[in-house]
Amino acid sequence: MRPIWSSASINEGIKIRLFTTFVVPTALYGCETWRHTERIAKKLNVFQQRCLRRIFRISYLEHKTNDKVLKRANAHQLEAIVTERRMRLAGHILRMNDNRHPKTAMRWTPRNGKRRVGAPRITWRRTFIKDLEDSQDPNIRWADAEQIAADRRNWRSLVARCAGMHGGN
């Protein structure tokens, strides 16, 4: 995409539409299942800023903040989009019947409540629980989330709050 971003004959609006139509979905493919780590979030946001700065021809020497670049592109941070998609997937899973495999996998805990040695400390489930805690209502627990997910309108508002806490505009 570098030749397109640097092309002077293509309008910035078209470049942004190409970015949001092709690049973002490709970069975020399957992100609903990713666990959240600061390293992944930073890589996503750096990638997004690098692309947008190339599109707008903004040098790092110009000292434009990332927020100004995002506002100019009328975009959200990719980290917020990932959080929103993860929460939407969780809502689908929480609304499933108890005998469905995704719901069983989501509720599963290791024997004795401890992971085996060498297993990742940050799991998708722990990421989801942290997203719930990071929402504007930190009193939401797992059982509360299942009740909220049953009502789609309330779940959508919770998803929007969680995405907003992760940098959504």
From the structure above, extract its key features.
Endonuclease-reverse transcriptase, 9 helices, elongated, mainly alpha, 169 residues
Describe this protein's structure.
This is Endonuclease-reverse transcriptase. There is one protein chain. With 169 residues, the chain is mostly helical. Helices cover 63% and strands 0% of the residues. It has helices at 2-6, 12-27, 38-56, 66-73, 78-95, 101-107, 124-134, 142-150, 152-165. Helix 8 crosses helix 9 (152-165). The protein is elongated and about 60 Å long. The two termini are 26 Å apart.
Topology of helices and strands:
Blueprint: H1 2-6, H2 12-27, H3 38-56, H4 66-73, H5 78-95, H6 101-107, H7 124-134, H8 142-150, H9 152-165
Helix pairs in contact: 2-3, 3-4, 5-8, 5-9, 8-9
Tell the overall outline: elongated
Spans of at least 5 consecutive residues with low confidence: none
Q: Please count the helical segments.
A: 9
The largest sheet, given as strand count, sense and whether it forms a barrel, is: none
